[in-house]
Fold each of these.
Amino acid sequence: MNHAKLTGRMAGATLAATALGGCITVNAPEEPIVIELNVNIRQEVIYRLAEDAGNTIEDNADIF
Amino acid sequence: MGDTMNRLTKSMLAAAAVATALGGFAAPAFAQRDPAYAAARAAGQVGEKMDGYLGVVGSETPELKRIVNDINIKRRAVYSERAKANNATLEEYALTAGCQAILATKPGEKYQAPDGSWQTRGAGAPMRDPRCP
């Protein structure tokens, strides 16, 4: 009984919240969006691969 | 008669061996950019992106798109192979190659800055991802 009433109230509260704050306006930022490219790639990995990548570019000069 | 043929065959084989040896050494050293790619690069119509691939700068034409796609497919194949050899992911290797490729641009060529904008390489160092070596 109590549980049902509580659930009803919660549903009402949710409805009210949706009605009041339902319209979320999203404005496009004026500043250019900075692309954080592959943020999960760590610097130490890049340092480890740097020499090999440099050689790859030299060895495949036709496509770089 | 048989002796002449034998000598002829021997000299032909020797010539073929020399040609193979020369070709084998010459091929990587003289591998040059396709003229259409070289021209587009010099004209700033294509540039080096941060992710290790080539991009079209400005308005895209079917020809530029073809050049860029062709190069990028080949790059991807090389990255994939080298990444495997180095126990790295394709993205890790490609991003590293992007660092190096941007560093290797010549003044006047285009590259992508960390904010995503296209920049013209000047005399100084290019603007790169802070993780670049």
Amino acid sequence: MAFLTIDHLSFTYTTPQAATLQDVQLNFQRGTLNLLTGASGSGKSTLLKIMAGLYPKHAGQLLSGQILVHGQPATLPDASLVALMFQNPDNQFVMDTVYEELIFTLENLQIDPAEFDDKVTAALDFVGISALRNRHLATLSGGEKQKVALAIIVAMDSQVILLDEPFASIDPQARTDILAKLMLLKSEQHKTIIIADHDLSDYQGRIDQLLYDDQQTRQVKVANEAQQTALFRPFLRKIKSSDYPLPATGRESAVVNLDHVTIKQFAREILNQPQLDFFANKVTLITGPNGIGKSTLFNALVKLKPCQGTISYAGRDIKRIHQRQYSRDIGLVFQNADRQFVAVTVKEELEASQKHSLLPQIYTPGKVAALFAQLGLEGLEERIVYSLSEGQKKRLQVLLMLIMGTPVLLLDEPFKGLDLESMQHLIDLLQQTAAEQQRTIILISHQLQGLTKFVDYHLTFEQQHLQYVGVAQ
Amino acid sequence: MNPSFKFIVAIILALEISFTNNYWVNLILILGSLLYIVRQKVPLRKIVWLFIVPLLPAVGLTVSMILKADQNFAFVFNLFTRLYAFIFIGSAATLTTEIYDLILSLQQNLHLPTKFAYGFLAAFNLFPKVKHEVQVIKTASMMRGITLRLWSPQLYFKAILSAFSWSENLAEAMVSHGFTEDQTRTYARTIPLTRRDWLLSGGILLSIQLLLVGTPYIINF
């Protein structure tokens, strides 16, 4: 008999007709590493949070089914049975130091205080972060925070360890370290580990079961041999450097220049760039591993993150440009769409953007309505923006920022959570705008399908360095 | 002294001097608080600030009372010293107590429900993030052509939205770290509540009552 069973589970956030999970049936054995993949915004997080006992307590409604341990219904949440590591390294700690957070957890589990010190020491040693013992959590990097989260799970000694996109915003080295520790927890302590991850690199040959989210049937299914090969394939192929041309030296004009720029996240250096130009009226794609610092680079470009050295826009040091002026020069499409909204309904958002647009002659109400329809958003005018689906929010957000008409637009993962069709609509709109209005677009994206015609130049971000790749013209 | 008792005594004393008019008591409280602060090894820099910060409002109050209300010296001096007494009593409680100790004491000695105690503590630890969040909200709005000021309702609307998502994340994280409301828990550290705490608190309050009764005072409306 399987150790852990998900038995005919259906779950919805709204109505039974719009169930997120429909009749999910899965089995997990002890001492296995299970990988759960699927598009973001699918049911992966939901399933993990149900297994951790957070849902339906905190959100949604369980329509049917149950979680079984050795065939018996489990009472959840039960921290000694199931532990969950979250996607966001922030907001998962109550106390202010690593030691106190571990103690808080042990106190919750009603462990004898006499054992506290040994347990804390053992957990920190296991993860290899004894040096962080008395550090303030607020001073740790994302990767260190996730290691602390893992140490807490080790101290809790839970049978099942769930990880919800745990590597989404941490550096590659931390990811490798944590994965190695998880392999040990599996083999030495026979933990059942389930990781939700959209990035499948490094997993092949290490996992016991690959599960995927089938959005058609709203089920989570076990991938067969052929499906596994197909799912892993995109992560084996690196982008060929010949996909894009290299910028021709001397022929392009720079709109943004980096001169001996160093960006640090706490003690860790993220970028150390002697020289770099972003070219005017071009579309530049930035790729690089998770957590390398791509979003932080964008924050530095819009003056939300201090850095050393000089970043200049149109020849002027951005430190000398007033923020209010500067935000009319460079716009950032945030990864989290909610950040971009300033009003309540979709209509009010569109009006706000039109009112303050730098290109009112182009973005007339008629034009805006046409673009709105082109993105498949028709009929949503009266909706409250925060109630839209993630995909709808994303499309609206990009449109709002295009209307603003800033000469430079930074887009941080604009295709996240979009299906291929919506993504194509958005690329068409961006391409059309860039061509007609001579705008500079700098883009971070993991999603590379369909970008070939749109992107002019390709920058890779690796080992604290940005570099153009491609064929010489 | 037990952290909870310290705060209770401080609140009672502050309330009492709000309704009485006796600068001798104010001066004794200032001196007593100062001695306690010094004994608890609070850095000198912070102690100096305690004298400077209330100076401007205290002087302002005194001058306006003399000029406009035409009050006698005793009354004006009482207001002046009362302001300082508030600051010193408050500081004697806050500067000498770790927030974590207070939270532990409120749970263990006064039986405050754990969900309030840790909810409060988590919120307290989130505080430094608020500043950065406000900056992001302001910049994001500027990119939409809207300048938010400290008095713009939109700023607060966005900040509250962020707070909602933080609190949701935190609540879930607490549960996944084994926290359950109203469940008994073990403690790495117990905050003692001794006979000495009772005697000391009682003694302080009693002697202040005697001083208030012993020296003439007027109820001030």
